[in-house]
Design goal:
CATH architecture of the largest domain: 2-Layer Sandwich
Number of domains: 2
Number of helices: 13
Largest sheet: 7 strands, mixed
Radius of gyration: 23 Å
CATH class of the largest domain: Alpha Beta
CATH superfamily of the largest domain: Endonuclease Chain A
Structural class: alpha/beta
Distance between the termini: 43 Å
Strand order of the largest sheet: 1-7-6-5-2-3-4
CATH topology of the largest domain: Endonuclease, Chain A
């Protein structure tokens, strides 16, 4: 967890304690507040000491318990302030994957130039419905989140309309390993590779593939997207990082440019994709 994130969480905890001690009707103990909220008393301590991130519902209950419901908006603004940069999957997926896809759909609508790096699977904006369905199913199992696979797939397919918008431009670099990853049945992967090879000709898309046999200038690490050279979205196992400070964005731009130098494009990329496709079973 980043230092900035933890410091912000601790600062919120301090504010929560201040409000508890100045509750309407007099100082309220942690035990008393826990009883009013229907919590174990240890939860109050974890929240006040920055060891647990509150939910919006937690903050609503806190404001009501201290007799000052008007403080909820302030507390929620503090929470959203630091969660806007580190968005845990546990919280984002509380209602399923569709909400996350809709968030990215909105981000795509507000941007025109996209740069992306992916090392483990095909970019979401280039996925077939069956491939996307497999990905969402696997992640729902891993994150133990509600399964809304079909709604999530429809939202992801909606994002792909941007590929046919002449005002949008996608510059994507993919590691060949992603073409081999059987995170779906072989027949689904075969159809996905056919789709990927066909997408190379789109005038809004520049797709590069880094061959496994190519020497790499840097390790093929975490996937990321850069929106209009102003914001970066990085996916980790526990959270998404939404980064917008100039120095960090510059680091990701240099990373992307470095990776790009190892990629092949156009007919060479199509030939590489097709070669991987031929390694799949003829029945695929």
């Amino acid at each position: 967890m980043s230092t900035d994130y933890q410091q912000a969480r601790e600062a919120l905890g301090v504010r929560l304690r201040e409000l508890r001690l100045s509750a309407v009707g007099g100082r309220l103990t942690g035990t008393g507040l826990a009883e009013r909220c229907g919590w174990n008393k240890s939860k109050v301590s974890r929240l006040e000491n920055g060891r647990q991130t509150p939910t919006s519902d937690d903050l609503h209950k806190w404001a009501k318990a201290i007799g000052r419901p008007e403080t909820y908006d302030e507390l929620l603004a503090r929470l959203r302030g630091f969660e806007s940069h580190i968005r845990s999957w546990r919280r984002q997926l509380a209602s399923g994957h569709k909400a996350v896809q809709d968030t990215h759909l909105s981000a795509h609508a507000d941007s025109s130039v996209f740069r992306g790096w992916e090392s483990s699977m095909v970019f979401g904006i280039l996925q077939t419905p069956d491939y996307a369905r497999s990905v969402f199913t696997r992640y729902a199992e891993l994150q133990r989140s509600p399964s809304d696979t079909e709604e999530a797939v429809r939202s992801r397919m909606k994002r792909q309309e941007a590929l046919y918008d002449s005002s949008k431009h996608f510059h994507l670099v993919l590691w060949e390993a992603a073409l081999h990853a059987l995170i779906c049945p072989p027949s689904v992967l075969a159809a996905q590779l056919d789709r990927l090879a066909g997408a190379v000709g789109l005038d809004t898309l520049e797709l590069g593939v880094i061959p496994l046999s190519t020497s790499l200038r840097i390790p093929p690490a975490t996937a990321f997207w850069i929106y209009d050279d102003r914001q970066v979205i990085v996916e980790n196992w526990h959270a998404e990082l939404w980064i917008d400070d100039e120095s960090s964005v510059s680091t990701y731009l240099r990373t992307w440019e470095t990776l790009k130098k190892s990629a092949v494009y156009g007919a060479d990329a199509q030939n590489l994709i097709s070669a991987v496709r031929r390694t799949l079973s003829p029945r695929s």
